Automatic annotation (TrEMBL), chain B:
Keywords: Acetylation, Cytokinin signaling pathway, Cytoplasm, Nucleus, Phosphoprotein, Two-component regulatory system. This is Histidine-containing phosphotransfer protein. The gene is LOC107923174. One of its GO terms (molecular function) is histidine phosphotransfer kinase activity. The keyword Oxidoreductase does not apply. Its main location: cytoplasm. It is found in: Cytoplasm, Cytosol; Nucleus. It holds the Pfam family Hpt. GO terms for cellular component: cytoplasm; cytosol; nucleus. Histidine-containing phosphotransfer domain (HPt) contains an active histidine that mediates the phosphotransfer. Residues 39-142 form the HPt domain. Functions as a two-component phosphorelay mediators between cytokinin sensor histidine kinases and response regulators (B-type ARRs). Plays an important role in propagating cytokinin signal transduction. The keyword Nucleus applies. It comes from Gossypium hirsutum. GO terms for biological process: cytokinin-activated signaling pathway; phosphorelay signal transduction system.
C-alpha cells in the first residue's frame, strides 16, 4: 500500500481522496485490534512481552514503570476516581482505547499491585488487569486476584499463555 | 549444498550440546520460535539486551559487596532478583541457578557466600556469552551460504 510518493514533502501535501480512504482504512483496522498496555521495569521482559503480543496480532504500548502507566492512563494527578460521564470516554486516553493491562508485580516505586488498586478504583476499573510475576507465591496470587486482577501469570510467559488472555479480552467487549 | 548441510548439522549439534550442558533451557527455544520475518534478529537482540543488563547488574552487585562500612544486602538482593528474572526470560539456566543460590546468601547476609556467587555468576555469564556468540556466528554462516536455520526442538 503506497500512501506517499517519495518525492513529495509529507507535510505540504494534501492526501488524494483515494489515499485518504486507505489511510482511514488502516486507522480503522488498528482501532479494531485489541490494544494492550504492558508494564514492566525489565527491558528484556518488555521486549519479550511486546513480541508475544504482536505475534498474536495485538497492538501494544510498553511502559517501564507503574508511574508511567498511571501517567498514560491519565491517573497520575488524580487522587479520587473521576466521575463517569460516558463509558467510551473513560476507556480512551490520548485517543487510544486500552483493552487490557498487563503488569509485572515486582517493580520499584509503584508496584504492580499498587497499579492494580489504582486502576480498579478509577474509571478504568472495567479494563481487565493481568499481573505477572517470576515468583510463584500463593499469598501474592490470592492478594492480586482479590484486588481485582483478572489473572495471575507466571513468567516467563509463552504463546500458550496468550490464549488465556484472549478469553479475557473477548469477555470485556462492550455490550452494544 | 553440502556446505550448508554441514553447517546446519554443526548448528544442530552445538545447540543440542548447549541444552544438554544446561546453558540453555526450553525458554530459549521459545524465543527462537518467536523469531519471524517481521523480526529476523529477535533472538540476537534479546541476547544483546541480556548481556548489557548482566554487566550492569554484576557491577551493581560488586559495588554493593565492596562496601567496607557494611554491605546493604537488600541492594545486592534486588540486583540478583533482576538478574534471575532476566536469565529466566532468556532461558539462561545456569546463570539463573546461580542466582537462586545467591539470593539465599543475601537473605542470610553472608558476605563470603555472596562473593563466591558473584564470581560464579560472572563466570557463567562469560561462558554463556561466548557460546551464544558462537551459535549466532554459525547462524550467520548458514544464512550467508544460502541455507535456512534449522528449528531445534
Amino acid at each position: 500500500m503506497e500512501l506517499m510518493k517519495s518525492e513529495n514533502i509529507v507535510q505540504d501535501r494534501q492526501p488524494q481522496p483515494q489515499e485518504e480512504e486507505e489511510i482511514m482504512q488502516q486507522e480503522e483496522e488498528e482501532e479494531q485490534r485489541f490494544h494492550v498496555l504492558a508494564v514492566d521495569d525489565s527491558v528484556i521482559d518488555r521486549k519479550l512481552l511486546e513480541k508475544l503480543l504482536k505475534a498474536s496480532s495485538y497492538q501494544v504500548t510498553c511502559v517501564e514503570s507503574g508511574e508511567k502507566a498511571l501517567e498514560y492512563l491519565g491517573l497520575l494527578h488524580h487522587s479520587s476516581p473521576a466521575s463517569s460521564s460516558s463509558q467510551h470516554h473513560h476507556q480512551e486516553t490520548q485517543g487510544h482505547k486500552v483493552n487490557l493491562i498487563m503488569t509485572d508485580f515486582s517493580m520499584p516505586g509503584t508496584s504492580g499491585y499498587d497499579l492494580l488498586k489504582r486502576i480498579k478504583g478509577s474509571s478504568w476499573k472495567d479494563v481487565p488487569v493481568v499481573v505477572m510475576s517470576s515468583e510463584n507465591v500463593p499469598s501474592r496470587i490470592s492478594m492480586c486476584l482479590e484486588g481485582g486482577a483478572e489473572e495471575f501469570m507466571l513468567k516467563p510467559l509463552q504463546l500458550s499463555d496468550l490464549h488465556k488472555i484472549q478469553a479475557h479480552l473477548l469477555k470485556s467487549l462492550p455490550h452494544s | 549444498m553440502d556446505v550448508v548441510n554441514q553447517l546446519q548439522r554443526q548448528f544442530i549439534d552445538y545447540s543440542a550440546s548447549l541444552h544438554r550442558e544446561g546453558f540453555l533451557d526450553d525458554q530459549f527455544t521459545q524465543l527462537q520460535k518467536l523469531q519471524d520475518d517481521n523480526s529476523p534478529d529477535f533472538v540476537v537482540e534479546v541476547a544483546s539486551l541480556f548481556f548489557e543488563d548482566c554487566e550492569k547488574l554484576i557491577n551493581n552487585m560488586a559495588r554493593a559487596l565492596e562496601q567496607q562500612q557494611g554491605v546493604d544486602f537488600r541492594q545486592v538482593d534486588a540486583s540478583v532478583h533482576q538478574l534471575k528474572g532476566s536469565s529466566s526470560s532468556i532461558g539462561a539456566m545456569r546463570v539463573k541457578d546461580v542466582c537462586v543460590a545467591f539470593r539465599s546468601f543475601c537473605e542470610a547476609q553472608n558476605r563470603e557466600g555472596c562473593l563466591r556467587c558473584l564470581q560464579q555468576v560472572t563466570h557463567e555469564y562469560s561462558l554463556l556469552k561466548n557460546k551464544l556468540q558462537t551459535l549466532f556466528r554459525l547462524q550467520q554462516q548458514i544464512l550467508a551460504a544460502g541455507g535456512s536455520i534449522p528449528v531445534v526442538e
